[in-house]
Amino acid sequence: MSVGPGRYGVRMALPAAHPPDDKPVPPPADPHAIRASLSPNLAAEFDREWTLVLERVKQSMDLSAIHDLLNKWQHTAYMEMRDPGSYYRLLAKAEEILRTGKAPEGSISGEQMKALIRERLGK
């Protein structure tokens, strides 16, 4: 698909939604793009958070909350593109940890996670 004459009077092709190997790419940090990539249930959650953040920003006049929200949902949308349902599984795991005070079976400690990261980074 192409768009009309661009800034320099040249027709330009729009980028593909997915790279050639058909792996998903994160949506741009734009509320419309993020919302369009979410399931209806997640889009409703995004809308609720968007409304709350906009009200806070009106009072504080600090736009960082909007950037934080877009960043969070950009990552959430990408996670869901790669593994549908992962957001709700993550919430369920967090709820279980809060309810029981214990990490789920098969979890690793924070120190073990840091060691894995150091190992992968070669440090």
Topology summary:
Layout: E1 2-5, E2 11-13, H1 31-36, H2 40-60, H3 64-82, H4 86-100, H5 110-121
Antiparallel strand pairs: 1-2
Helix pairs in contact: 2-3
- What strand order characterises the main sheet? 1-2
Radius of gyration: 19 Å
Uncertain segments are 1-16
Quote the beta fraction. 5-15%
| Element pattern in H and E | EEHHHHH
Count of helical stretches: 5
* E-strand count: 2
- Mean pLDDT equals 85
Give the distance, in angstroms, between the N- and C-terminal Cα atoms.
Answer: 46 Å
Content-based structural category:
mainly alpha
What kind of sheet is the major sheet? 2 strands, antiparallel
Taken together, the total number of domains comes to 1
Shape: globular
Helical content band: 55-70%
Region (Disordered): 12-35
InterPro entries: DUF6247
Summary keywords:
123 residues; mainly alpha; 5 helices; 59% helix; globular; disordered N terminus; DUF6247
Note down, in words, how this protein is organized.
It holds the Pfam family DUF6247. The N terminus is likely disordered. The protein contains five helices and two strands, in the order ββααααα. With 123 residues, it is mainly α. The chain has one domain. Helix 2 runs antiparallel to helix 3.
